[in-house]
Amino acid sequence: MLKKRRTSSGRWRHQRLACFSLFLFTFACLPLTGCSTAPKAADQASFMERADGSKTWFEENVVGLDEQIANAKAYVIFPDVAQWGIIFSGGRFGRGALMDPNGDQIGWAAVNTISIGLQAGVQGFRMLFVIQDQATLDEFMENKWTGNVDAVVVAGDAGGTAVQSFEQGIALYTGASQGLMAGISLGLEYIRFKDLDEP
Questions:
Q1: What is the rounded distance in angstroms from the CA atom of residue 39 to the CA atom of residue 192?
Q2: What would the pLDDT profile of 72-105 be if each residue is shown by its tens digit?
């Protein structure tokens, strides 16, 4: 009898673990249904300081990036993806700001994707989208981006990275806040836009 109870208990624990794992995977695949796109009002000033600092970092380390941004329609800067965000089965969350080439803010952005894999030692990363034209910007502001784009990994060596070509109207750059990271392919459907005037 004791042996049978142990077998039944083990099967029950295994079923619970399988259900819990399925829940985490499903949660990670949901594109930002429960995450706030914009930072809290009290945190927005410090967020924008980090965003400005991250843009400067990319421009210092990517040859020709400042010119690419100046000739583009807009850019999205994520200063600290997964730095403090919740991680479920590889899903990362981070907030960003949508800016015009002159540095004026257009809106907010957020990313939550299971397609980003961080290597051991990486503690969050910066991410920059350069948006080539009005059509691509309109699709983003209507939350209609689809497909995947590959990112150029920017190291902390001044001028050590070449400018990225546009792919689907987007040039994507990433750089680890701490540690080394490999290249990523990002699912665009997990990037979300929010207007500045939205509550």
A1: 14
A2: 999 999 998 764 443 434 445 678 999 999 999 9
Tell me the domain boundaries of the chain.
Answer: 1-30, 31-195
- Residue 97, SS3? strand
Return the residue matching tokens 């981070």: 94
Distance CA 61, CA 118 (A): 21
- C-alpha 57/C-alpha 51 separation (Å) is 10
Length of the chain in residues, anyone? 199
Q: Residues 124, 83: contact at Cβ < 8 Å?
A: yes
Q: b vs e for 56-69, b when ≥16 Cβ sit within 10 Å of the residue's Cβ?
A: ebbbbbbeebbebb
Structure tokens at 158: 């001044």
Helix or strand or coil: residue 48? helix
What is the arithmetic mean of pLDDT over 29-33? 42
pLDDT (mean) for 45-74: 95
Rounded distance between C-alpha atoms, residue 156 and residue 17, angstroms: 41
Specify the pLDDT at position 66: 96
Q: What rounded mean pLDDT belongs to the chain?
A: 74
